[in-house]
Amino acid sequence: MKHPSLKEVAYSTIREKILTGAFQPGVRIREDQLAVEISMSRTPVREAINQLAAEGLVNNIPRRGIYLNEISPEQISELLDVRQALETLAVTRCIDKIDAAGLDRLTAIQKDFADCISEKSYHECNRLDSLFHREIAVLSRNTTLIRFLAEIEDTMLIARLIEKKSDPDVKNRITYLEHGQILSCIANKDRIGAVEAVRNNLNRMKLNLAIGKGKEDAE
Fold it and tell me: How many whole angstroms separate alpha carbon 27 and alpha carbon 68?
Protein backbone atom coordinates (compact mmCIF):
# COMPACT_ATOMS: atom_id res chain seq x y z
CA MET A 1 0.00 0.00 0.00
CA LYS A 2 1.41 3.36 -1.05
CA HIS A 3 1.80 5.87 1.76
CA PRO A 4 0.73 9.48 1.07
CA SER A 5 3.48 11.98 0.42
CA LEU A 6 4.15 14.88 2.78
CA LYS A 7 2.55 17.21 0.25
CA GLU A 8 -0.59 15.02 0.13
CA VAL A 9 -0.82 14.95 3.92
CA ALA A 10 -0.34 18.73 4.08
CA TYR A 11 -2.96 19.24 1.37
CA SER A 12 -5.55 17.06 3.14
CA THR A 13 -4.89 18.69 6.52
CA ILE A 14 -5.07 22.29 5.25
CA ARG A 15 -8.11 21.56 3.07
CA GLU A 16 -9.89 20.07 6.08
CA LYS A 17 -9.11 23.19 8.11
CA ILE A 18 -10.57 25.40 5.38
CA LEU A 19 -13.73 23.31 4.97
CA THR A 20 -14.42 23.18 8.71
CA GLY A 21 -14.17 26.96 9.15
CA ALA A 22 -10.74 27.25 10.78
CA PHE A 23 -10.08 30.33 8.62
CA GLN A 24 -12.44 33.20 7.91
CA PRO A 25 -13.01 34.16 4.24
CA GLY A 26 -10.69 36.99 3.21
CA VAL A 27 -8.28 36.38 6.10
CA ARG A 28 -4.56 35.91 5.41
CA ILE A 29 -3.23 32.39 5.89
CA ARG A 30 0.37 32.34 7.12
CA GLU A 31 2.44 29.59 5.51
CA ASP A 32 4.99 29.58 8.35
CA GLN A 33 2.29 29.28 11.01
CA LEU A 34 0.59 26.46 9.11
CA ALA A 35 3.89 24.58 8.94
CA VAL A 36 4.24 24.83 12.73
CA GLU A 37 0.60 23.85 13.35
CA ILE A 38 0.79 20.68 11.27
CA SER A 39 4.40 19.89 12.24
CA MET A 40 5.85 19.97 8.74
CA SER A 41 8.51 21.88 6.86
CA ARG A 42 7.41 24.78 4.68
CA THR A 43 8.12 22.97 1.38
CA PRO A 44 5.18 20.48 1.45
CA VAL A 45 2.96 23.21 2.94
CA ARG A 46 3.87 25.53 0.06
CA GLU A 47 3.18 22.76 -2.48
CA ALA A 48 -0.20 22.06 -0.86
CA ILE A 49 -1.08 25.76 -0.90
CA ASN A 50 -0.24 25.91 -4.61
CA GLN A 51 -2.63 23.02 -5.27
CA LEU A 52 -5.39 24.65 -3.22
CA ALA A 53 -4.83 27.89 -5.14
CA ALA A 54 -5.15 26.00 -8.44
CA GLU A 55 -8.46 24.59 -7.18
CA GLY A 56 -9.71 28.07 -6.26
CA LEU A 57 -9.98 27.62 -2.50
CA VAL A 58 -7.22 30.11 -1.70
CA ASN A 59 -5.73 33.10 -3.47
CA ASN A 60 -1.92 33.30 -3.54
CA ILE A 61 -1.17 36.97 -4.21
CA PRO A 62 2.49 37.73 -5.10
CA ARG A 63 4.26 39.89 -2.47
CA ARG A 64 1.10 40.03 -0.35
CA GLY A 65 0.44 36.50 0.84
CA ILE A 66 -2.16 33.74 0.84
CA TYR A 67 -5.81 34.51 1.50
CA LEU A 68 -8.87 32.33 1.83
CA ASN A 69 -11.12 33.30 -1.06
CA GLU A 70 -14.20 35.29 -0.18
CA ILE A 71 -17.49 34.20 -1.73
CA SER A 72 -20.03 36.95 -2.29
CA PRO A 73 -23.78 36.32 -1.90
CA GLU A 74 -24.09 36.98 -5.64
CA GLN A 75 -21.54 34.26 -6.43
CA ILE A 76 -23.29 31.82 -4.12
CA SER A 77 -26.63 32.64 -5.74
CA GLU A 78 -25.18 31.85 -9.17
CA LEU A 79 -23.67 28.66 -7.82
CA LEU A 80 -27.01 27.62 -6.34
CA ASP A 81 -28.75 28.22 -9.67
CA VAL A 82 -26.33 25.78 -11.29
CA ARG A 83 -26.63 23.38 -8.37
CA GLN A 84 -30.43 23.43 -8.59
CA ALA A 85 -30.34 22.38 -12.24
CA LEU A 86 -27.91 19.55 -11.46
CA GLU A 87 -29.62 18.37 -8.28
CA THR A 88 -33.13 18.28 -9.74
CA LEU A 89 -31.73 16.00 -12.43
CA ALA A 90 -29.87 13.96 -9.81
CA VAL A 91 -32.94 13.39 -7.63
CA THR A 92 -35.12 12.25 -10.55
CA ARG A 93 -32.41 9.85 -11.76
CA CYS A 94 -31.94 8.68 -8.17
CA ILE A 95 -35.63 7.77 -7.97
CA ASP A 96 -35.26 5.73 -11.18
CA LYS A 97 -32.19 3.85 -9.97
CA ILE A 98 -32.38 3.60 -6.17
CA ASP A 99 -32.65 0.23 -4.42
CA ALA A 100 -33.31 -0.71 -0.81
CA ALA A 101 -29.62 -0.44 0.10
CA GLY A 102 -29.42 3.09 -1.33
CA LEU A 103 -32.51 4.13 0.59
CA ASP A 104 -30.93 2.73 3.75
CA ARG A 105 -27.80 4.83 3.16
CA LEU A 106 -29.81 8.06 2.84
CA THR A 107 -31.82 7.12 5.93
CA ALA A 108 -28.60 6.51 7.90
CA ILE A 109 -27.27 9.93 6.91
CA GLN A 110 -30.49 11.49 8.16
CA LYS A 111 -30.19 9.65 11.48
CA ASP A 112 -26.59 10.82 11.90
CA PHE A 113 -27.68 14.37 11.08
CA ALA A 114 -30.32 14.27 13.83
CA ASP A 115 -27.76 12.94 16.32
CA CYS A 116 -25.30 15.72 15.45
CA ILE A 117 -27.97 18.40 15.91
CA SER A 118 -28.70 17.00 19.38
CA GLU A 119 -24.98 17.02 20.17
CA LYS A 120 -24.55 20.52 18.69
CA SER A 121 -21.85 19.16 16.36
CA TYR A 122 -22.55 21.77 13.70
CA HIS A 123 -19.39 21.25 11.63
CA GLU A 124 -20.38 17.59 11.36
CA CYS A 125 -23.90 18.70 10.37
CA ASN A 126 -22.30 20.65 7.53
CA ARG A 127 -20.43 17.54 6.38
CA LEU A 128 -23.58 15.40 6.55
CA ASP A 129 -25.57 18.04 4.66
CA SER A 130 -23.01 17.75 1.87
CA LEU A 131 -22.95 13.95 2.10
CA PHE A 132 -26.74 13.69 1.74
CA HIS A 133 -26.70 15.62 -1.54
CA ARG A 134 -23.62 13.80 -2.84
CA GLU A 135 -25.19 10.42 -2.04
CA ILE A 136 -28.27 11.30 -4.09
CA ALA A 137 -25.95 12.09 -7.01
CA VAL A 138 -24.07 8.80 -6.52
CA LEU A 139 -27.37 6.91 -6.49
CA SER A 140 -28.29 8.51 -9.83
CA ARG A 141 -25.43 6.45 -11.33
CA ASN A 142 -24.71 9.26 -13.78
CA THR A 143 -20.92 9.64 -13.71
CA THR A 144 -20.91 13.01 -15.47
CA LEU A 145 -23.47 14.42 -13.06
CA ILE A 146 -21.53 13.08 -10.07
CA ARG A 147 -18.34 14.72 -11.36
CA PHE A 148 -19.94 18.11 -11.99
CA LEU A 149 -21.48 18.22 -8.53
CA ALA A 150 -18.20 17.11 -6.91
CA GLU A 151 -16.35 19.97 -8.63
CA ILE A 152 -18.43 22.61 -6.83
CA GLU A 153 -18.87 20.81 -3.51
CA ASP A 154 -15.92 22.41 -1.71
CA THR A 155 -17.33 25.86 -2.45
CA MET A 156 -20.74 24.67 -1.27
CA LEU A 157 -19.24 23.50 2.03
CA ILE A 158 -17.79 26.97 2.62
CA ALA A 159 -21.10 28.56 1.59
CA ARG A 160 -22.90 26.43 4.19
CA LEU A 161 -20.46 27.59 6.87
CA ILE A 162 -21.29 31.20 5.96
CA GLU A 163 -25.02 30.47 5.81
CA LYS A 164 -25.20 28.80 9.22
CA LYS A 165 -22.71 30.95 11.12
CA SER A 166 -25.64 32.51 12.99
CA ASP A 167 -28.47 30.44 14.53
CA PRO A 168 -26.88 27.11 13.53
CA ASP A 169 -29.27 25.04 15.64
CA VAL A 170 -32.43 26.47 14.06
CA LYS A 171 -31.01 26.40 10.54
CA ASN A 172 -29.75 22.84 10.81
CA ARG A 173 -33.10 21.67 12.17
CA ILE A 174 -34.81 23.24 9.16
CA THR A 175 -32.29 21.56 6.85
CA TYR A 176 -32.99 18.23 8.56
CA LEU A 177 -36.73 18.62 7.93
CA GLU A 178 -36.12 19.61 4.30
CA HIS A 179 -33.88 16.59 3.76
CA GLY A 180 -36.60 14.45 5.34
CA GLN A 181 -39.06 15.72 2.75
CA ILE A 182 -36.62 14.93 -0.08
CA LEU A 183 -36.05 11.44 1.33
CA SER A 184 -39.79 10.80 1.69
CA CYS A 185 -40.38 11.77 -1.96
CA ILE A 186 -37.53 9.51 -3.10
CA ALA A 187 -38.94 6.58 -1.08
CA ASN A 188 -42.41 7.17 -2.56
CA LYS A 189 -41.08 7.59 -6.14
CA ASP A 190 -42.62 11.07 -6.20
CA ARG A 191 -40.57 12.84 -8.89
CA ILE A 192 -42.54 16.09 -8.88
CA GLY A 193 -42.47 16.33 -5.09
CA ALA A 194 -38.75 15.49 -4.97
CA VAL A 195 -37.86 18.23 -7.45
CA GLU A 196 -39.92 20.73 -5.48
CA ALA A 197 -38.33 19.63 -2.19
CA VAL A 198 -34.81 20.03 -3.62
CA ARG A 199 -35.67 23.50 -4.91
CA ASN A 200 -37.10 24.49 -1.52
CA ASN A 201 -33.93 23.31 0.22
CA LEU A 202 -31.63 25.32 -2.07
CA ASN A 203 -33.89 28.38 -2.05
CA ARG A 204 -33.79 28.32 1.77
CA MET A 205 -30.02 28.71 1.55
CA LYS A 206 -30.42 31.73 -0.72
CA LEU A 207 -32.89 33.25 1.73
CA ASN A 208 -30.61 32.65 4.72
CA LEU A 209 -27.67 34.31 2.97
CA ALA A 210 -29.78 37.30 1.95
CA ILE A 211 -30.98 37.74 5.54
CA GLY A 212 -27.42 37.45 6.86
CA LYS A 213 -26.20 40.14 4.46
CA GLY A 214 -29.06 42.39 5.48
CA LYS A 215 -28.13 42.05 9.16
CA GLU A 216 -24.50 42.91 8.46
CA ASP A 217 -25.51 45.95 6.44
CA ALA A 218 -27.80 47.11 9.23
CA GLU A 219 -24.94 46.91 11.72
Answer: 6
Which residues of the chain carry a pLDDT beneath 50? 211-219
pLDDT digits (tens, 9 = 90+) for 60-74: 888 888 888 877 777
Distance CA 219, CA 46 (A): 38
60 phi, psi to nearest 5 deg: -95, 100
Estimate the crossing angle of helix 73-97 against helix 122-140, to 10 degrees.
Answer: 50
Give the total residue count for the chain. Answer: 219
Nearest to 79 by CA among 162, 135, 185: 162
Residue 147's CB is within 10 A of a number of other CB atoms, namely 10
- The rounded distance, in Å, linking the Cα atoms of 5 and 217 is 45
What is the 3-state secondary structure of the chain?
Answer: CCCCCHHHHHHHHHHHHHHCCCCCCCCEECHHHHHHHCCCCHHHHHHHHHHHHHCCCEEEECCCEEEECCCCHHHHHHHHHHHHHHHHHHHHHHHHHCCHHHHHHHHHHHHHHHHHHHCCCHHHHHHHHHHHHHHHHHHHCCHHHHHHHHHCHHHHHHHHHHHCCCCHHHHHHHHHHHHHHHHHHHHCCCHHHHHHHHHHHHHHHHHHHHHHHHHHHHC
Tell me the whole-structure pTM to 2 decimals.
Answer: 0.78
